[in-house]
Design brief:
- This protein is of the alpha/beta class.
- It folds into two domains: 5-139, Rossmann fold (3-Layer(aba) Sandwich); 155-214, 5' to 3' exonuclease, C-terminal subdomain (DNA polymerase, domain 1), CATH 1.10.150.20.
- It has ten helices and six strands; from the N terminus they run E-H-E-E-E-H-H-E-H-E-H-H-H-H-H-H.
- It has a six-stranded mixed β-sheet, sandwiched between helices.
- Strand 1 (10-14), helix 1 (19-28) and strand 2 form a beta-alpha-beta unit.
- Helix 1 packs across helix 5 (122-139) and helix 6 crosses helix 7.
Length: 233
């Protein structure tokens, strides 16, 4: 049953989130605002933001390095508390080993200070988000007036972000490249053979990195950029 108006928690949801979750939140009695959030998928107070991932997306984000980049951005944001919700039942044809999954969970908790919850369905996700909002706003009297943003990056953070945007390059490889070449400029001008000599870069990644820096900018009609859609490895 929906709560009385004076006790309804407000939840800001990213407008790209599925209707199934948003409809459940409204049915539970939440005051829902849809907005394109800079960070996270749901914000329930000034201090708490929620990142929701399906099992498949969570596994893909481990493989392509997005998970830890996201976690770094979330944990260094203006909000101090981060909750990851992983939705869905374990997949029998998973591409990730149990050891790798446990390692990712451990990193989110120990390295980035995130809480992790598992839900079986969109409805269960909505119930958890709703109750977090009730706790923050109705029990703890936390306000929801400021949307979480990324804190201003230092120069080293900006350098890492530039290199992490390269094909198949996550946080660890970006750090290895910067330590080896010292500057972003040196990476951009390095020959393919020298890029390949960096630990865990290899010939394929080196070729893709070299291509990004040397390819002329020719946007396709109706598109802003050329995109390499091959899977990251």
């Amino acid at each position: 049953m929906a709560l009385q108006n004076e006790k309804r928690p407000k939840i800001v949801a990213d407008k790209r989130e599925p209707d199934e979750v948003c409809d459940c939140l409204e049915a539970l009695g939440a005051e829902l605002e849809l907005k394109q959030l800079e960070l996270g998928d749901y914000q329930v107070s000034d201090r708490l933001i929620i990142e929701r991932k399906t099992r498949a997306d969570f596994e893909s984000s481990i493989l392509d390095g997005r998970l830890f980049s996201q976690a770094e951005g979330l944990s260094s944001s203006t909000a101090g508390r981060i909750v990851f919700i992983i939705e869905g039942s374990p997949n029998s044809d998973t591409r990730i080993s149990r050891s790798a999954l446990l390692g990712a969970y451990s990193s989110l908790i120990a390295d980035f200070g995130c809480a992790i919850f598992f839900t079986k369905s969109a409805q269960a996700t909505a119930e958890l988000v709703f109750h977090l909002a009730c706790h923050e706003q109705l029990s703890r009297k936390q306000s929801l007036s400021v949307y979480a943003k990324r804190k201003a990056k230092t120069f080293p953070e900006q350098q890492r972000a530039i290199i992490e945007a390269l094909p198949n390059v996550g946080p660890k490889l970006a750090l290895s490249l910067l330590k080896y070449f010292d500057t972003v400029e040196n990476i951009a001008t390095a020959p393919e053979s020298e890029l390949a000599s960096v630990d865990k870069i290899g010939k394929d990644k080196a070729a893709k990195i070299r291509k990004i820096f040397s390819l002329r900018y020719k946007p396709k009609e109706g598109s802003e950029s050329q995109t390499d859609t091959s899977d990251d490895k």
